[in-house]
Write a structure and sequence with these properties.
Number of helices: 14
Number of strands: 16
Radius of gyration: 27 Å
Mean pLDDT: 87
Low-confidence stretches: 1-10, 173-177
Distance between the termini: 66 Å
């Protein structure tokens, strides 16, 4: 322990206790809570934080909450904990007596029925960290009743308007699988939550599989999100663009293009004629797309024929490592030479033999 003197009126302390070096027994928690206003706690594990807030709850020591929050730098970390009903009551008690706190519940187990009582208190949370399974449970809670519906906007705010269903950003090493399937009902709840949002939302669907009816649900909110998804899922979205009436097709194409932003990367995916028809529809209605990567897609002249009328919109176009012949190469050159909008076209590793025409224009990378 070391003596310290903080100028902050909120964190006036006389002793700093580093719990990386101190082994404190559970029976001493009560004594520690009684002196929290004079002790600055450091390096607290999630299990120890849980013991502290439980003791504060059971003794009704609401005045100790600011001291604990000061020690944990205003962040309640309960990662990888298995909460029971008393733990949940302690968490609610803590949230009731604080504002703008960060709450981390990555891989935290919360009993059925308890999560619903925590959701209304998220208005006291400024930043929430959860794994994708708990995120889904929270979204479903927010859709249960009229009383909970207002919580959806609060939940999105605590998540910084970022719905992340990928495993890469918060990998749980206890899981045996790296993929996750979103059901149609999951997608309905996600869509409903985003529909109520007043600001754009990031929707991250890396490592996810989605039922086809679920993908259809998500089309209704694509115009309100920035979409990050796997290439396999992107192909699934593309496959549903030309479904329905002509107006439906246009709306889906526009929505998907808006969600993808300035870059569309389908490299390393096999694009057949049907996929190229869908992609052509998206390109036709694109306004902000600047980079298109179709390298290693096994594109033939026949497939490329569908895309050629729209390639003049792209600034950086990658068609390398495909099956493009001189026939399509000449047409691509003609498009590029008459459109100053095009900055770079990569055509190397194709079946192109007539290359002299490209020598005079450095925008074309053919070797």
């Amino acid at each position: 322990m070391t003596k310290t003197h903080s100028p902050s009126s909120q964190c006036q302390t006389t002793v700093t206790a580093d719990f990386r070096k101190i082994n404190i027994k559970q029976q001493h928690i009560k004594e520690l809570v009684s002196v929290l206003d004079r002790v600055q706690l450091r390096r607290l594990s999630s299990s120890f934080v849980l013991l502290i807030i439980r003791e504060i709850y059971e003794t009704g020591s609401a005045h100790c909450v600011p001291s604990v929050l000061c020690s944990v730098k205003n962040c309640i970390n309960l990662n990888s904990r298995e909460l029971d009903s008393v733990h949940c009551a302690a968490l609610r008690f803590t949230l009731q007596h604080c504002t703008a706190v960060s709450l981390s519940l990555l891989w935290t187990s919360i009993p059925e029925g308890e999560l619903e009582s925590i959701v209304p208190l998220l208005s006291h949370v400024s930043h929430l960290s959860v794994d994708r399974l708990l995120l889904l449970r929270l979204l479903h809670c927010c859709s249960v009743s009229e009383l909970q519906q207002g919580a959806a906007a609060v939940l999105l705010s605590t998540l910084q308007h970022r719905l992340d269903f990928s495993c890469s950003s918060a990998l749980d090493l206890t899981e045996h699988t790296q993929t996750h399937t979103l059901s149609s009902e999951d997608c309905r709840v996600i869509s409903m939550t985003i529909q109520r949002a007043q600001t754009p939302t990031q929707l991250i669907l890396q490592d996810c599989e989605i039922e086809e009816t679920g993908v259809e649900q998500l089309f209704t909110i694509l115009h309100k999100v920035t979409l990050h998804c796997s290439k396999a899922l992107l192909l699934q979205f593309l496959s549903l663009v030309p479904v329905g009436t002509e107006l439906d097709c246009v709306r889906r194409a526009v929505a998907l293009c808006l969600a993808l932003g300035e870059e569309l990367d389908l490299s390393q995916t096999q694009l057949d004629l049907q996929a190229c028809r869908s992609l052509a529809l998206v390109l036709e209605h694109s306004e902000g797309l600047t980079e298109l990567d179709l390298s290693h897609c096994q594109l033939t002249d026949h497939c490329l024929e569908l895309l050629l009328p729209h390639l003049h919109k792209i600034n950086v176009l990658d068609l390398s490592d495909n099956y493009i012949t001189d026939v399509s190469a000449k047409r691509i050159y003609d498009i590029g030479s008459t459109n100053s909008n095009i900055q770079t076209v990569r055509l190397f590793s194709n079946r192109i033999t007539e290359r002299l025409r490209f020598l005079s224009d450095q925008r074309f990378e053919i070797w």
